[in-house]
């Protein structure tokens, strides 16, 4: 079976409302359809690469290709998991967790997106909390970092709510123009003090060597 060779297909992170995991092919198609209907309003660009402004069909194809490429490039010293977020069995977005040389650094970073129709329901906070549970409780991370443009108020609000501390600014680029970024750092202690979302993990043990974690 495929899961015997690539155990990340058996990884599950669950919260009271959500399940984060890799999608089956038809579920990936549903995720691409979701992206076609929009990810954010026209007045905001949360990504350095403005893929979310591609024409709908190209945007959907990009979601699929991004999913395949991260799986193809996964290796212990450099990996990214594009975990699809499911609500009531349907995909609502993506919560990515990634790391370089995790076995040494013990640090993760994250990116995410949520279908526009699902904004404003607390899902963004809950799915980031699930990712942090995987990082700290599951993988044994020491730190998590996050970066958001200063005008992406929803993302910055999630980081602050979950205990991240401001960690300086940087000069990013958005739509070809200078866009100041706020950097955040979350320590294990701060995560433990601020966690409010119950989460469980299933199927992690077989994945640990693939993610650079010694067992």
TrEMBL record:
Domain N-acetyltransferase, first and last residues per copy: 17-164
Transferase as UniProt keyword: yes
GO cellular component: cytoplasm
Residues annotated as transmembrane: none
One Pfam family per UniProt: Acetyltransf_3
InterPro entries per UniProt: Acyl_CoA_acyltransferase, GNAT_dom, Ribosomal_N-acetyltransferase
An MF annotation (GO) of this entry: protein N-terminal-serine acetyltransferase activity
Keywords: Transferase
Entry protein name: Protein N-acetyltransferase, RimJ/RimL family
Organism expressing this protein natively: Jiangella alba
């Amino acid at each position: 079976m495929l899961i015997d060779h690539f155990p990340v297909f058996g990884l599950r992170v669950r919260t009271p409302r959500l399940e984060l995991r890799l999608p089956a092919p038809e579920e990936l198609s549903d995720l691409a359809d979701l992206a076609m209907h929009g990810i954010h309003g026209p007045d905001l660009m949360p990504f350095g690469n403005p893929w979310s402004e591609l024409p709908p069909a190209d945007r959907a194809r990009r979601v699929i290709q991004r999913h395949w490429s991260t799986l193809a490039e996964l290796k212990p010293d450099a990996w990214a998991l594009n975990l699809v977020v499911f609500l009531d069995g349907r995909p609502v977005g993506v919560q990515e967790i990634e790391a370089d040389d995790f076995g040494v650094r013990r640090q993760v970073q994250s990116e995410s997106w949520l279908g526009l129709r699902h904004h404003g329901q607390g899902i963004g906070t809950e799915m980031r909390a699930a990712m942090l549970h995987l990082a700290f409780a599951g993988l044994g991370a020491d730190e998590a970092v996050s970066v958001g443009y200063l005008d992406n108020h929803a993302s910055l609000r999630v980081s602050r709510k979950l205990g991240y501390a401001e960690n300086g600014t940087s000069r990013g680029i958005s739509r070809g123009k200078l866009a100041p970024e706020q950097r955040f750092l979350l320590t294990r202690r701060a995560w433990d003090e601020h966690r409010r979302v119950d989460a469980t993990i299933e199927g992690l043990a077989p994945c640990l060597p693939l993610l650079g974690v010694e067992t």
